Amino acid sequence: MKVKNLEHIDFSMLMDCFLKAFENYFVKMPTDHEYYKDRWRMANVRFDLSYGMFDGDKLVGFIINAIDERAENLIAFNTGTGVLPEYRGQRIVNSICQYAFPELQKNGITTCRLEVIKDNVRAIKAYNSIGFKITKSYKCFSGDIEFNDEASDFELKKVDEAYFDWSSLHQHIYSWDNHINTIKRGSYSYYAILVEGKLDSYFVMQPDNDYVAQLDVIDSTIHSWNRLFTAMKSILKTIKINNVDERLNQKIDFLKKVGLKNTVDQYEMELNL
């Protein structure tokens, strides 16, 4: 078997391996190929810096890397790792990493990053053995907004990405897929909640699936959170929010208060090259 980059792989071959590797996973994975093309484009996946293990011409394992600058560091974010069931137990991920890390270093990448579901104990142990360390804990939520403490002293305004000063909006708290560098490449809608003409809170959502990538208040007060969720409820009923940093206690408390359920917990892990 041999490790090679995925620059010239047929996309249907990659997806065939990907979906087989994620059968019976902790969460149900989408199967639409176009979904992954769009998601990986937004994440800035580089197939020339993504790698697979091949048994002859057959792809049997892979690491798909998105490459982008975050906090002045060039990061490789592992947006998908998998091995076909019949090839597990052969340290294939370890072998791919041993091949990939020097290649990533040569391309100026300083850090590798990934997310893993907390219940996936086997994967966490494997990543620990390679050298990854847990750096963040995330909580995912979904459900219907059930909110009674509604506010009326605000203006809800649909804006575009350029409306916001993103450097002041704490992008370091967001996961890779929810960071402005990623969402600005997608089809998102941006909303500002204004009080007396000043920004009080905001949220960013995908209108086709009610996924909320970012939401926050400028000043963390109960009144601001009430305005934010009142505004969101006027547009959305059912929402999904992934990867809320568990240190954001007030945000998490309000997500629960409005009726959302904690569905999955994840770790973010890093390795410095």
UniProtKB/TrEMBL annotation:
Keywords: Ribonucleoprotein, Ribosomal protein. GO terms for molecular function: acyltransferase activity, transferring groups other than amino-acyl groups. CDD domains: NAT_SF. Residues 1-161 form the N-acetyltransferase domain. InterPro entries: Acyl_CoA_acyltransferase, GNAT_dom. The keyword Transmembrane helix does not apply. GO terms for cellular component: ribosome. This is Ribosomal protein S18 acetylase RimI. It comes from Flagellimonas pacifica.
